[in-house]
Structures are given as C-alpha cells and as structure tokens.
Amino acid sequence: MTGLAGRFGAVVTAMVTPFRDDDHAVDLDGAQQLASWLVDNGSDAVVVAGSTGESPTLSSSEKAELFRAVGDAIRGRAKLICGTGTYSTAETLELSEAAEEAGADGLLVVTPYYNKPPQRGLIAHFERVADATELPIIAYNIPGRTAIRIEHDTLLALAERPNIVAVKDSTGDFQAVSRLIAEAPAGFEVYSGDDWAAFGYACLGAVGVVSVASHLVGPQIHQMLELVATGDVPAARKIHEQLSPLFNALFITSNPIPVKAALTMLGRPAGVPRLPLVPATAEERARVRSALEDAGLL
Structural domain of residue 19, as residue ranges? Predict the structure, then answer.
C-alpha cells in the first residue's frame, strides 16, 4: 500500500449536482462554478454523479453533460472522477465510454444495487467494466445503499486487475479495512467513503477520503490527513474532533439533503434535491445552520 496521498489525491469531493430551483433541471453553469471553487478550496479531485450527486435521478445524457462541463472547469487543476456505476452492466459500460470522451481521470463504479448479484456476479461486473476501459477504476463498497457488500476475497481478486486501483470503502468496518490494507497488492489504495471515518482509516493506512464535508471544510480535512501522513496524529485527531459535529450534522437525514442546505446558506450553487429526495425541513436547516456557525463558517 502507498501512503498519503493516493493517485487521486487525499481529498476527493463527492460533489452535489446543482439543480435549478424552478424546473429542477441540471445547472451546468452552477456545477462548473462549484467544482472550480472546490478545487480552489482543498479538493484534489471531484467525483461527478456519485451518490452525493443524486446519480439515480440523473439521466445518462445528463451525466454525460455533467462529465464534460465539470471536466472543462477543472482540467489541469484537479482530477475528474466520473460516477458511472449502475445496477446495469450495459449502462455502466455506456457511461464509462462517455466519461472517457469527457477526459475523465478515473471512474467510480458502485456495487450494482437492488438486483443483489452474488460475489461471482460482482467479479464479472467489475471485470467487464475493467476490460472495456483503460481508465483507473475505484470500486465503491457501500452496502448501506446497495444491499450487497464486496467481500474481502472479492476485493482481493478485483485488486489483481491492473486498472482496478482502489476502493472507496463506506462500510465503517475498521477491522476489515485494516486487513484489506495489509493484504492487498502493492499500489491498490483504500479511500474512506465517510468523513467520520477518514481520520481512523488514514491512521490504518488509507490514502484519503471521498468526502461530503469537503464542500465546506476542504482545507481543514486536507490538513488533518497531511498531519496523519507526517506522523502528528494528536494534532490530526484534534481537527477530527473539531469537525465531528459538522460531519454528524451533514447526515441527520439522507445525503445530500443537509449539504445542499448548507451550500445554499453559504451562497454556493446547489439548489434543491430531486424527488424522491426532498428539501431539508426547518428543524434540519436549523441544525445545519448551528453546525456551520459552530465551525465558523457563518
């Protein structure tokens, strides 16, 4: 395993997809503005059309437009990672081709959701995608959303593929992550998929975090991970403790509802979520606002 930071940097922001308030259409100009601002404020890479980007409610054409727009905004300054995974291998292949055409630096491919393939099906799915592209692939392990986990032996098998280079781990399973980091082949990287786990994962040898909170506190998260990398774990832990209330506030209800509320409060392009997600309630907005105030952001 390599140390901080990984091939995509240490702080990868899972970017929201801004929608227009009137018709909920994708706000491509807002997406470019937000992506550029993120890169100027702590993000080494940006994930477009991931979970935080409300990918299930984006059409394939909307995703392709987002890939191109955000790529144009950040090219040469940060890495573009395109969320191309779906529950359909064929659709994943089509989206991965669109990402290549947009100049993506990597693909985030989530475990197929809803249809619950067996582990051999996961291997077949990821290998089919890997065969169809030369881009580096991050496998996305988030059983809380997909109802299926990429098991340890499956991850090790996938890690043998030259262009399956990393996993975004949203299991919160520190024991499993420690074992994976110890047993994975050289060059295979682990990213925390949760802000609350980023400090602990980094101490175990993860190379960074795919973050939601970096929309708001990217430089602080970057500093925390740099401190771990340089061996100043107590100072890094202090930042983790300072940011934990904000991490918690961003997950008081389904992501990205709270972070979209927070971005709106800070005047950043975000807009409302698309159905079936709904805007934050007054109580939820109050909790988000309080966390922003406590973090010195308002």
Answer: 11-230
Measured CA to CA, the distance from residue 248 to residue 214 in angstroms comes to 13
Q: Phi and psi for 191 in degrees, rounded to 5?
A: -110, 135
pLDDT tens-digit map of 19-57: 998 899 999 999 999 999 999 999 999 999 999 999 999
**Which CATH number does the domain housing residue 18 bear?**
3.20.20.70
Q: Which pLDDT tens digit goes with each residue over 160-204?
A: 999 999 999 999 999 999 999 999 999 999 999 999 999 999 999
With respect to residue 245, please indicate whether it lies within any of the assigned structural domains. Answer: no
Looking at residue 1, its pLDDT comes to: 32
Q: Is 264 inside any structural domain? A: no
Residues that are catalytic: 140, 168
Note if the bond before 256 is cis, omega within 30 degrees.
Answer: yes
Predicted TM-score (pTM) of this structure: 0.96
